[in-house]
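Two entries, shown back to back:
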Amino acid sequence: MRPRVLCQALVFACLVVPLSNALAASDPEVRSQAEQLRGEDRPAEALLIVERRLAAAPDDDDAFRLRVLILTDLGSSRLAVEAMRQRPQLFADHERERERIEGDAVARAIGWGRVEPETPEARLAESRAALAELEELQRDAPRQTNWEATRLRVDALSALNHLQQHEAVVTGYQALLDDGIEVPAYILGTVGDSLLALRRPAEAIPVLESAIAHTPHDVNARILLGYAFIETERFDRALPLFEALAASQEAWPRQAAARSGYENWDRYSADLNHALAHSYANDNARADTMLQAQAGVGPNNPGLQAAYGAVQSRRLRPSAALERYEMALTMAPQDRDALAGRVGALTALDRIDEARDALTALQQAHPDDPRLDRVERDLERHRGVQATLSANRGRSRQRDGAGTSISPFGSRDGGWALEVRSPLIDDRWRVGVFAHEDWADFIDGRTRHRAAGVGTWYRQDRLGAWATLGAAGGASSGATWTLGADWRFNDAWRAGVELARNAQDTSLQARRLGIDADSATLTASYVPSDTFALQGRLSRLRYDDGNTRDQLGVDATQRLLTRPHLMIDGLLSAYTSRGSRGDTVGYFNPERDASANVGLRFDHITWRRYETAFQQRVELMAGPYWQRDAGTHWVPSLGYRHLWRRDGHELEYGVAWSRPVYDGLREQRVAFDVELRWGGAR
């Protein structure tokens, strides 16, 4: 005989004697024995006695009423309500009892509404039904006792929260406070969750702190409080909270005398959110390491895979992120985090048609998700108009103001540029216009160059291509065009090539002599993560006077320090070039030159509120510059910039100071530039 069957047989044998005794007893004795068992917290045995009594005497109202009460004790509130409604007259003089039973049934239904449904379509059906039943009780059978009336109002907040009706949750909570009602502690975490969903973290903090004061071991409330601190930029409170929470939870707690421990899902939640907290604090590398270890232990956890995908996305690895989201959705097709993250990953990979399909899947599965509006806006902004407007001014002079500047920028220089691209056409194409003007003051006057034209841009998945055609004016005239393409090999590697006629970066010193230049440029970049980047550029300028100039530059960035509001990067750049005609031309054209610079970049997030932020940047660099026949000189530079971000649009401006050397003569240069990027343009 199997152990489970044996246990059932023993239980039945133990109940046979009490049941037979009960059947032989009189009606009052039966009820008395059932009441005694109920009082001894043995409701199952009491229910068996009552059921046998009702089988023998179905009209026994006292036994029937006792059966309803015992069903409530057992948590079968729905059965209790259904039975109570069969003989409502038995509860006419027990108003509080009746209201309690009905309230228990509603509360149970709300709780069951949060259980994983049998089908995705039924995900919110039980919560909606429970809320409708609750509202029917409030409307058709107003509670006569204050506590039960309050209880329905409080339980409604839980159902509304699950239905993503967060405004209604906060409104209902405030109404309770306005009525002078002390809100039960068990619902405060739910209210805090809705306040966070509405992006009102400052209001959520005292609510969640009150919840934790009443229930210090409520892991979910402590996690929500940590996120409230994060969203108010109080990482100094959030990170220690998550760390202490994770340390307080054993992975495999063991009851006294137990042979083995049991799974502690609170520890999993604490570890997962501790890692995500580091990611929100810009330390994506640490979050990556923490989640990778967890994924090795629980690869079949869809929530964990979705969280790991989010961190991969922040590490600038959209392909890796998409892979994790797909893994999560294979196990849990309705996972909200994976569905939302998949839209962003596909957008970053320029697979816009698939991103739109992914957005549709999110809309159908979670139409009431608060983040849905943000996901929609992000995709529409990427698909919409993109524009860049920039301007710059600079001044160069020889050291101590002696002599006339020989800088290729002239004594003063400036310019502006505008590029506007249409919304995406067929999810791949854009058309647009461009215009720019550059000028510089030389010893013989001001030189200007301007150009304007039209262009088309294509980007789908790994391939990008573009072509522009325009007309130039000013110091030089004629047609100007560019033709280019790039290819993304994977998340880290990208390479491109561009050919240009009458190239924009032609020296204005040469243009003042009526000399134009064509260019060919090869670019390659290796960006394996958000903490390291290596970029290279090889170009050739072919001037109309027969001179060719080859240039090679390499730039590297390595994260040195990460803090929630401060990032410090180490910078390295190297450059070398050569001209076929040496310095025999009328513009700055070293026969050979080279430079190497090292430096630091400090990025400080001074203020941030979700997608809106103000960032300051300081950049220090110095290194030797060598020019054939002019020796080697150290060249320092200093830059200070502001960057404003709002809903994907950016405004950046800054000032830069340097002391470059041209033909052995040191100059001092100060420059200012400003750029507005609209719609995610780069």
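entry 2 starts here
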Amino acid sequence: MRATVTAHKDYTISKIDDRVYGAFLEHLGRAIYTGIYEPGHATADKNGMRGDVAQLVRELKVPMVRYPGGNFVSAYNWEDGVGPRAERPTRLDLAWHTSDSNAVGVHEFADWCELVDTEMMLAINLGSRGLDDARNFLEYVNGPTGSYWGDLRKKNGHADPFNVKLWCLGNEMDGPWQVGHKTAHEYGRLANEVAKTMRAFDKKLELIVCGSSNADMPTYPDWEREVLEHTYDNVDHISLHMYFANRENERALAEGGTAEALAKNTANYLALNEKLDRYIATVASTINFVKAKKRSKHNVYISFDEWNVWYHSNKQDRKILDGNDGWPHAPRLLEDIYNFEDVLQVGLILNTFIRRSDVVKLACIAQLVNVIAPIMTDPKGQAWRQTIYYPYYFASVFGRGTALQLDVNSPGYDAVHGDNIGYVDVSGVHNEEDGTISFFAVNRHASEAIDVDLSLEGFGAATVIDHQVMTHENLRAVNTATAQTNVAPAKGSGAKVDGKTLSVKLQPYSYQMIRVKV
């Protein structure tokens, strides 16, 4: 089986905003406690932050991290997380039916962000609280000393403002599960007034208004239209969320499904990024509609600030989420153990973001540690890379530059989410500063290798400088504390440039990164 791809230096999509490789940490399960923060751990620093986790995060070069939620933020009092730890209250979290000690708050999170060389993206509670609390939180975080909130921050140990630029105006306010759920009109009016107030403090802030929680919401995409009609000229981004699952295979495995049925389910699962692409396109069109309706010169972009595979842990979480286990502190919740099939899915999602970099400027993998995360830890024990760590790592580190408009000709298949979906899914990023092109490719075919000829037009002489391959005979293979490299990249062989053609073989069910110097 063969496929052809053409990359031309002058045919580009957009400069990629590095912040599309952002991440998310919520006060949920063990994301914070025994995730990033575990005093007494062998690697913990003086602030109680795990050094082994910090090192894995630094390797990812995460540009920003969204905090503290998520559903958690819609009933969160930010004041609970400042001041002396001994005086901070323990609160019950209604979103995840747990308790939170508030041992980590905005100060501790800011110190951790400095430790791992990332920026803060803060979310405001617009569920149970409103404009005045949002204004006070902003002034506490960014205000000067000599003011009430600035002086309180100084008293609590940080005289200089934190200078946070990215602010989420609530979380998933379209969701009936959300504390303080609102209609589009109710939320749009509130978000606009909050945005205006925050702009009065600092016109240079980047504000993110809530879009749909997923593309299957009954209010989508009219929610986006109505919210943007209220807020358009006062915000910079609208958020989208999407999670990816192969529950059909989970059921088939439990029921002893045939190999043919499992392969069909995997094919449908690996076509989900077609649904993702339509989701982005629909909201981009809605943004353009509202912009035209308002005769605005302002641009609004998409912040895809929650995305990942999430389904492996659903059954085991029910005991806690249904309230049958009291109010535990930092229990094991949403701890998906990712397999090799999920490597392919995450690679496909990231390829989609690269190809839609004209409109998707911010994105956050949800989440970063323990909770549906690329990094796992054991309390008092090890930290390790889950299978999905690697495609995220390759895209974040090497996917910076300008997205190329590739012409792809590949054999395809029909799936639930679209027809004639190419077996080869590929994105390309030209980094003009270091003279490289990075290609990220997935072969969706279960049994056939695909020979790809990639024509490099307008770049001049090229040589292969790196080739990484991820493949495994078992789609359900995972990494664990005792088998940390069971699913890991290996150096590829056979990728070569002859004249202006880059040739590479994509093994069945494989993820590959090929980098060339030009």
